[in-house]
Amino acid sequence: MHPTKSAFEELVVHLRRVQTLESAADLLGWDEQVNLPELGAAQRGEQLAALAEVIHGVSSAPRTGELIAVLSGAGAEQTDDMRAVLAQARRDYERATRLPVHFVREKATQASHGYHAWAAARAAGDFGKYAPVLEKNIDLARREAAYLGRSDAPYDHFLDYNDPGMTASAVSRLFTELKRDLLPLMRSIVAAAGPAQPSPLKGLTEEAQKSFLSDVTARIGFDYRRGRIDVSLHPFCSGSGDDVRMTTRFKKDEPLDALFSAIHEAGHGIYEQGLPASRWRGTALGMHAGMAVHESQSRLWENQVARSRGFWRFFEPRLRALFPGGAAEVGSEDLYRAINAVAATPIRVESDEVTYNLHIILRFELEQRLFSGDLAVGGLPAAWRELARELLGLEISSDREGVLQDVHWSGGAFGYFPSYCLGNMIASQLWYRALSQRPALEEDFARGDFSWLLQWLRENVHAQGRRWDALTLVKRVTGEDLSPQPLVRYLRERYGSLYLG
Amino acid sequence: MHPTKSAFEELVVHLRRVQTLESAADLLGWDEQVNLPELGAAQRGEQLAALAEVIHGVSSAPRTGELIAVLSGAGAEQTDDMRAVLAQARRDYERATRLPVHFVREKATQASHGYHAWAAARAAGDFGKYAPVLEKNIDLARREAAYLGRSDAPYDHFLDYNDPGMTASAVSRLFTELKRDLLPLMRSIVAAAGPAQPSPLKGLTEEAQKSFLSDVTARIGFDYRRGRIDVSLHPFCSGSGDDVRMTTRFKKDEPLDALFSAIHEAGHGIYEQGLPASRWRGTALGMHAGMAVHESQSRLWENQVARSRGFWRFFEPRLRALFPGGAAEVGSEDLYRAINAVAATPIRVESDEVTYNLHIILRFELEQRLFSGDLAVGGLPAAWRELARELLGLEISSDREGVLQDVHWSGGAFGYFPSYCLGNMIASQLWYRALSQRPALEEDFARGDFSWLLQWLRENVHAQGRRWDALTLVKRVTGEDLSPQPLVRYLRERYGSLYLG
């Protein structure tokens, strides 16, 4: 074998081994949330810490550095595949070798401590208990960026960590335009929709809910021979390749909650199942393209697809069949409105897709100011309230409904929130591109046929792995730069037609 | 800290780390049998292989050898605890370092190949397909023994691997005596019991069965805050410390099957939960004393306890409450006979506790002859039939009901079967010792109180870990050498009184 090719194959084997060990740790993490006995947490923590240390050792093995050097050398002939794999391998290797072990340990300890401090502060509604954690986490974040050569722009470092190539200025440009167009639209829809209503569908057993959502998620494309669904407190999706695991939770009087959670997680799962893992697992070519693209896949199925009229033409009779008397007291239009209810709420995870993006813009603006030094941690609660008033028209009465609501910052996850909104933008832009190629998509859905859309996503997004960053991927697939306009158009079409007549 | 003490503490930390990684692999093994999606097997195999390699690397790290050498040196002052820990650490380190990596890999590959070849041969009832696997496995077993310095007595090596200190001559002496006394007793009980009868308890839902067996296993002492029960094809128990996982399986018309499987596995689980893990996990002091003692714990709860009249005085009304009409058509004595049914059957795992031990003696005799060279693999089916006739009075019509029935040899697990029967002997000997100290044990059970027995086992067996080997442990707890006589006495008392009147 040519020496470049042989070094490349050795690197691929090595990266697959790292991913294999990481996936073992992932399974322990899944199990922790789904199955762990009440008193098993300390032991599980010990297992995960031991695995993390092993994985760090394997990831930072000097041989990896040698292979990367050989493949980056002047004499190495590179294909496109090799270039993509090498870029990500270099990125991961630098992260593994530049962050000192003592720092990684300090960050892990602080993340665990931060989680518990946050949970206690949230329960007590006492931001003062949480502030020192946030200060320490921001300090750690700055140090991490410095170790990785980004002390000039620590917030950019975190955006780029979640979404390769993303910068604060790019996000800022997109969010500013979105805010300009979404704010007036959101205000008129929220005003027209009126106050939130309870779900019209009551009293569906967990068994019936599970049977329905399994049917839905299997039909849209989640392969249950290569994955499963279980119950956890907070829905999530983990795993990869031939073992993708998603969770949901059941509320007897809100069957739409479990259903849409499951469709969302199935969107993540379908993406993971569509990555070219058998050849490329662990490398850039077998890896998702970042959190924004991941989120676009969950949102597209959850929103563009599963909140459409076509989708419900097929599934409404199936859902009604689970109720004695077919839930005849609930009219079709009431059901469709319940599925697409809009009302501003202080809590991000309870919000609808019209207001959701403003929750993200709020967090992005605060994160920028925290990292630029414009805003001190002590000023966060007031700044949060001010933005909630400006963006959502809400008066936040308690920090539990404000700055204490999200877990992310407690574990040092900065620069993560933007990917939720970027994912919504990408989902809309992909959606209109797909629709332009197959205008009859909703008619497919009305027949329970999701195969054209699935195949289109498989080819255009899933099969590409992390060959390109999010912005490049969107440009290649849709022919346009990423823009908030498709999202605004989608929200106007769906919710304008429903609420603004 | 004194240098010996400091080296010892370093060794303890190291051994705990090895066990922690092993327990992560265990969890993946549990998950494979309980949760794995249909197409996830290859990926799981890759994860387990990667973890096995990591664990081998950590176990055989030169620093371990240095610590063992320091602690074994002339100047080292050893306590009893240190001696026990050191002996096991040396044993494990020698195994990790003396078996070459290529051999470990060859054995693992062959175990996987052997399993599939066995499954295919069993399905086809074709021993010819299985014979080459067995020949290869015996060859590998001899090579393993040679690497570990036991080429003189490869079978002893495997007995000792499963039960430290055990030898073929010790087992042979015990089994010969057992056979002499058990054979005539078994023959008269089987003759008196007549042909096997179907279970009198029909049609119990899985939910009702699960609720009943959860109640039973919790009352005898399995702590569900530190463990759980799930469903798998073959019942087993895995995990350790604060996360012990057992499984059972449900058959609608045989509720006693799931129940007794669960009690058996709960016995294993109660033992694991009782080991002094927080201080000693991974060392001899926090480790079970070998497979025979492990089996004694499962059998004691399953048989001596859960087949007793006292036990059923408490649980019979609870079981009846699950049936409409209280299963009034089944009399109490019929129920008790169903619980203690006896009938010779060709299949070990379906056999009752009177005939069970003869299934083990059959396998022990064949294993001895295979390793001594007296018996070639080709002669196994005929030798099996002959022994089944002699020991169980059965004519084996197909190898599926003979030599092809067990999975053990397909993976190279030789010298394992004897621990099942040794476990039965130990259980009986422990039982009579406990009874001599508290004659009212069955009256405890009749009140649903198992705490005295549990506490007695906690102190005398569980808290001891692997401080002593099985023979020493039995001698210390009961004051007598291990003997088959308590088992014979127990079977005579329970089954003689039931069937021989």
Written account of the structure:
The structure is a homodimer of 501-residue chains. The first copy, chain A, is mainly α and 501 residues long. The first copy, chain A, has a domain at 3-152. Chain A is built from 21 helices and 3 strands. Chain A has helices spanning 3-34, 41-59, 62-72, 80-98, 101-124, 127-147, 154-162, 168-193, 206-220, 255-274, 277-280, 291-305, 309-320, 332-339, 353-372, 380-392, 417-437, 441-446, 451-460, 470-478, 485-500; strands at 227-231, 237-240, 243-248. The first copy, chain A, has a 3-stranded mixed beta sheet, with helices on both faces. In chain A, a hairpin with a 2-residue loop joins strand 2 (237-240) and strand 3. Chain A is globular, with a radius of gyration of 23 Å. The termini of chain A are far apart. The model of chain A has no long low-confidence stretch (mean pLDDT 95). Chains A and B meet through helix 1 and helix 2 of A and helix 1 and helix 2 of B.
